[in-house]
Amino acid sequence: MSDSQYTGLLIIGDPHLEGRQPGFRKDDYPNVILDKLEWSLDYARTHNLLPAILGDLFDKPRDNPTWMIGRLIEILQGEILSIYGNHDVHYQPELTNDDTLSLLVKAGCLRIVSAESLWSGMMNSRTVIVGGSSYRQKIPKQFDTAEYSKKNETDPFVVWLTHHDILIPGYDEGRIKPVEIEGVDLLVNGHIHRRLETVTKGNTDWLTPGNISRRSRSDATKEHVPSVLRIDIESSSVERSYVEIPHQSFDVVFHDAIIDSAAKIESSAFVAGLSELQARKTNSGAGLTEFLRKNVDQFEPKIIEEIWKLAEEVTDE
Ligand SMILES: [Mn+2]
Predict the structure, then answer these.
(1) Sheet with strand 81-82: strands edge to edge
(2) Both 150 and 11 in a single domain?
(3) How many Å lie between the centroid of ligand 1 and the Cα of residue 257?
(4) Which domain holds residue 209?
(5) How far is 212 from 15, CA to CA, in rounded Å?
(6) Single residue among 244, 273, 294 that ends a domain in this structure
(7) pLDDT per position as a tens digit, 153-189
(8) Structural domain ending residue among the three candidates 216, 244, 272
(9) How far is the CA of 7 from the centre of ligand 1 (A)?
């Protein structure tokens, strides 16, 4: 344990870096998100905060563009903690040598924390411990602070990073119920892409800060303000706040939804709708897929099959 220069932590939620445009984004997503990550790390440096990433640094675990990895090596300077998320790995739950993230870990750009590999240090004369459970790793039932506790001193402040399906009001897909984890003061979960309310169980606060990037166009995302979670640690108190990351408005970032009025139309309008979708040119073909899903049923089964075949050829779904 070292007497660190830090006075707190800066938690960065699921960047989902990717070399192409996701879904209905119409801006220069690959660079916009890299800029946000860089902004966050600059902010941490300026304010003496130790940065920690909540997993899903990448959206695709492999075949990320070399220019992007190169820029990351330039951006990821100094000590940066992380866990890995479901998007950082390929099918199997462990991070392997084939996953891009492992390259950054080996290059010393990131340090993966776990139950076996904790970060510990002093922040404003309080002992701080950061552990983590990457995707599919067990969240501990308790954490023994005995070896870190010193007489006449405030108990260590223990933060645990996770990337799990946690059942938080507003996120129905959750499976893991928040409980008190003895010895853990703060559990911060990635994976859920929007900020949700804090759930307090005994001595443990369960936090869901949400992404620094907006990936889908759903209403939930529309209300999400890209932010990082700042945790200031004093000798006997801890303060949490959200810091907004400079970002463009929802309308600048996303294509308009144009589908709804077209849902009940006839064949000719269907074709017209298709040409409008072509004009949108989302890289992933997100608009096309959504449009077809809503409209294709009006045709005969053989034609439907043919339409999907063609759609698959032009998208990578
Ligand atoms: Mn994610």
Answers:
(1) 111-112, 81-82, 49-53, 8-12, 227-233, 238-244
(2) yes
(3) 23
(4) 2-244
(5) 6
(6) 244
(7) 778 999 999 999 999 999 988 999 999 999 999 999 9
(8) 244
(9) 28
